[in-house]
Amino acid sequence: MFVMTDAQVLTLFGLFLLGLLATLLVVRALRGARDAADQDAPPAGPEATVIVDGSNVMHWGGDPSLSVLLRVLDALRDLGHVPAVVFDANVGYKLFDRFHGHDAMARALEMPERLILVVDRGDVADTAILAVADEANLPVVSNDRFREWSVQYPWVKKKGRILRGAYDNGAVTWTHPRR
Q: Which domains are delineated in the chain?
């Protein structure tokens, strides 16, 4: 009889989620390419250079706030970044008192849908954030230290990989404003 340890189960589950996320991103990219071709649209803009923990960042000013999130995204663009934003499934309820998926959040943020991910209910956004950041070797914007993920993703402890910040009186400040 084959028995798996808890660590092996978690590793397999993590690999499954990573594969599922990769499949989702490929399908979304293909759908976006098909839609762009159908509309004779210009090619998509530059790929993301930073992953934003949207559910964390929207709390930087205290209560969940779309305006705080928008200010942080603008500050990242001012630093030369192209942000991609990942949210917990409940983001719409926190900001708008109703569900908002990828498309609705993309409209609210005035960003391309391909740069927005709202995880499914019951999924942990941290899994998607860290898997994508790991795969693409991108920094993450969040005040979460991701300690519970440091064994699977040791880079979360490296200075500059998690960009922390604050929002106060209309201003965004960075702990590590590196690109």
A: 46-174 (3.40.50.11980)
